[in-house]
Amino acid sequence: MDCKEFKTIVADLFDKDVNSHVKAECEEHICQCAECKAYYEEMMMTAELLRPKHSPVTDREKPATNGFLYKVAAIFLGVVLLSGIAYAAVRVFTQNKEAEPTTCEQQEPEQKMLVAFFLPDDASEWHKKHLGDAIMVSWSRGAWIQNGGDSFIEEHPFCKMGTMFMVNNSTVRLNGRELDIHHLPDLPAKAMKKMEIRYENDSILVNIITTPVQVPADVKGNINPELTVLLTGAPPKENPVKSSIYVKSGIQESFDWKKYQYTSWAASQPDNIRDYLEEVAIRKDHHVRINVCRGVPQKHIDRIQKLMQDYGVTNYELVRQ
Fold first, then answer.
1. Which residues pair with 205 in a beta bridge?
2. Do residues 49 and 93 lie in contact, with contact meaning Cβ atoms separated by under 8 Å?
3. What SS3 state is found at 58?
């Protein structure tokens, strides 16, 4: 693992369900790299600082514990380091919410559209300068997100990637009226119809719209209905794991080991592939291609077919390599 790869996945270490193989590789890397160790420690400190001080979770806000991980990634737009820090902070916050019980496991959680994060008075000057207070924005299925040149309709039940805007370089408006972080309106995420994000010099301008909007016909959803799964027999040297799976968005007629994202089999299920299967199952036009390498035990083929059934994926094909 190199420094670039470490900084790409380090935020996953804040997830209680982090893949043990990934965690071991990251821990080995920071033992050998002082720069990445300092980067990780800075994230840990900032994640603690960004815990909301006055955001009690009511029964109405508690997510259902149905195995669908409520992951909200807070992105400090344009700065890679701060993106990772904010992301980790929200992962820590949402994990605390996940741990609380719920009375209805079948009901989708009702997210709040706006949540305030405040730095404590004793925060370091570095944090005050580079982070400061922030507003986290979340939304639900059907919202139209227009982020610069990126435009899409949310297809998940609720957003997989919420956005955190730092107050010191962002202006957040609700229907054109600027919001006061100390007096945010209590609105559900489903109230958002559109969010417009524009960049002007070093500032970010955000406008959240709650009135009906007309979505252009060429604006697409944000879920790729195609997925390739690669079952390995003799794993490559890059990832020498006896029972391994690789996944890739989009159907691939052939495969290259290095272009696939690795995940391992857990005791009964693979750790990460369920996220991909949940995604494609949302789309009625989904298509999953399962590439089966030589030497793959039948039990692995049976397990992957069982997973397809468990997650409601019906349109898939087995392709022998």
1. 171, 198
2. no
3. coil
